[in-house]
Please model this.
Amino acid sequence: MQSEGETDPQYQELDLRNIPEPPVYTTLEQYASLSNTKSDTNTEYAMPGEIVLSFQKNNATEDDKQKLTDELELLKTVGLHKNILSLIGYCTKTEPVYLLLDYMALGNLQKYLRDFRKSNTDNYANAEGKLPSLSCGDLLSFARQTASAMVYLSSKKVIHGDLAARNVMLNDDKMCKITNFGRDLDNLRGNGNDNKMRLPVRWMAPEVLWSSEFSIESDVWSFGVVVCEIVTLGNTPYQGMSAKEVIEYLKQGSRMSKPNCCNEDLYLLMMNCWSQKPTRRPKFKDLVRELEEMEREKEVYVDINSAIGDL
Model:
């Protein structure tokens, strides 16, 4: 078991006073030309490989550029962890500016889960004619990897603020990497009843909705909602309720009921995350330990067939 802040040796935590800068490339062509270059053994950043997919925003405003700069600085500060979408390198010397990140072929976790459910209900198949496969173990692994990423972010004193399945990415090996952390807290602060703001109400802890009090503990609340998304194969939390109804529901002290597809132990983990008092919620390191135990026990914590039919 890894303790809080500890990571896989390949992604060891670095002393920020000595952390090497990620490689700086003048152009993407320069980045691509280095694809066959052996990495420097003194750097913690892998040398580049193939550029698989790129996005460019035309007519970027100064605000857009500032947000990109802020994201770059945050990614540089956070450093490397196997369950975080980490920075490979960046191009800042010429316009446009680029950030180079891992390619996550399976997309975000929410869509992946929903596509799996669709593949089993509507005879949906992907472009290769293959149907995705999922087991109870996969679902527990998604939850555990997400919690492990949050252990690391907690050790860096970084609050995610928008932890949700849509912000968990998957690669070909079903490795989870969380993204979009710590960027929009200022925009998310405010009253959940403000109709002018688009807030992720269904993932927000009560103290965030009432008082804009973001914390690691409010991230734990959101994690409980992510676990519910995972076990229901991407169902929208608080199914059938409007955002306003969700707020009123939480004001009454109510919580989402147990999904039919998961057992009591896994539901208890969610409920602990949804404790009214932030200090009574579990630590992420304890959630990792609990999920690891569930994975080892090989019990059916999630009934996949039931989840497919439970909309």
About this structure: The two ends are 35 Å apart (CA to CA).
